[in-house]
Amino acid sequence: MCGTGKQEILGEGGDKAAQFVRLLTRFQPELYTYISMLLGNGERARDVLQEANIYIWKKAETYDYARPFLPWAKALARAQVQKYWLYRKREQQRLVFDEGLFEMVSAKLARESSEESDLLEALEFCLKRLRPKESEVVRLHYFERRSLNDMTGLLNASIAALKSRLMRARTALSECIIRRRCSLNSGGQG
The pTM is what? Predict the structure, then answer.
């Protein structure tokens, strides 16, 4: 669930090309949304995403696996969006954004992406620190999308007990995420 997806996707060892393909595949929805927001048009975004994927693939050797993938890929996708706008300008078609507005929107999206990435990293960190019973109820309810009724049989617990576990888990996650983000923002490790 981390914003980089590294540990979940890369696993242990493995061929770099396959790892890179898994990362690029994992983040297609985020790249599409980013490009679509910059272009203001979903149809054009699909075309630019394809160009961006080709460009990202060509730049695969420059990716540092120790760093988050999504911000790196978004920077390359942004270059393809700029290339698209330059092409459009040369073709004498009306631009939706002027260069200043494009830079402003792009910078805002980059900040939001960084904040989202930090939040997801904190969530992943905190999920690993839940107690086993709380972790299990979170996994079943939020990741496997099981209803409380389904979970009563699986966990041999009443709905009230499961609601209580979920509430304790959400509270623990919320407190942990706040501590983790404060720690990261102040330069700490945990």
Answer: 0.46
Outline where the chain has alpha helix (H). Answer: 6-10, 16-26, 28-39, 42-58, 69-90, 99-127, 132-138, 148-155, 159-185
- The residue whose two tokens read 């700490």 is 188
Alpha-carbon distance 42 to 154, whole Å? 42
The pLDDT tens digits for 124-174 are 888 889 899 898 998 888 888 889 999 999 999 999 999 999 999 999 988
Q: Cα(33)–Cα(181) distance, rounded to whole angstroms? A: 25
- Which residue in this structure is represented by tokens 């975004």? 45
Tell me the C-alpha to C-alpha distance, in Å, between residue 95 and each of 28, 37, 89, 103, 111: 26, 15, 7, 14, 24
Q: Is 136 exposed, middle or buried (0-12, 13-18, 19+ CB in 10 A)?
A: middle
Polymer length in residues for the chain: 190
Identify the sign of the CA torsion 94, 100, 102, 104: negative
Contact 109, 38 (CB under 8 A): yes
Q: Give the end-to-end CA distance of the chain in Å, rounded to a whole number.
A: 18
